[in-house]
Amino acid sequence: MRSILKVNWDSNLPIYAISQSELQKNGIHSLLLDVDGTLLNRKSNMIPKSVKNWIIESKKLFSLYLISNNPSKKRIAKIAKELNLRYKYNASKPGKKVTLSALKEIGSEPKNIAIIGDRIFTDIIVGNRCNIKTILVKRLNKNGLPIKFNLTLTIERLISYFIK
Prior knowledge:
Order of helices and strands: EHEHEHEHEHEH
Shape: globular
Number of helices: 6
Strand order of the largest sheet: 1-6-5-2-3-4
Mean pLDDT: 94
Distance between the termini: 11 Å
Number of strands: 6
Low-confidence stretches: none
CATH architecture: 3-Layer(aba) Sandwich
Structural class: alpha/beta
Strand content: 5-15%
Helix content: 25-40%
CATH class: Alpha Beta
Oligomer: single chain
Number of domains: 1
């Protein structure tokens, strides 16, 4: 049994630097995308141009779906509308219910789906609980650049080391 905390691909990159061809080589057809921290900074309403461009290119290759723990339907709906993507908000990750609902809508085999997020204890755990691939990315700052030091992720990694 694999650890619920195991990351399939710890990219150490921001989402916009993830290689679409690598995703395809790994059999990925559909992507669940975390929003806050992954696509844009939690305190920002502006999706960085680099992220928008990555989404535009990815939509040509994959089925994309936003899945966020953010309880603000207004915020997530605005982002989803701007990117022209389906979405779920208030997902309660690592709880499975909302994620499984999104997976059902996507309709792909779990082996062909990955979740991309910036948190181990939400995005990675729910991905593992739903038997899909997991990709950890660097959190973005207000300027859309990867943050240099992520205290939350450092703590999650430390705890994960002892939970294994």
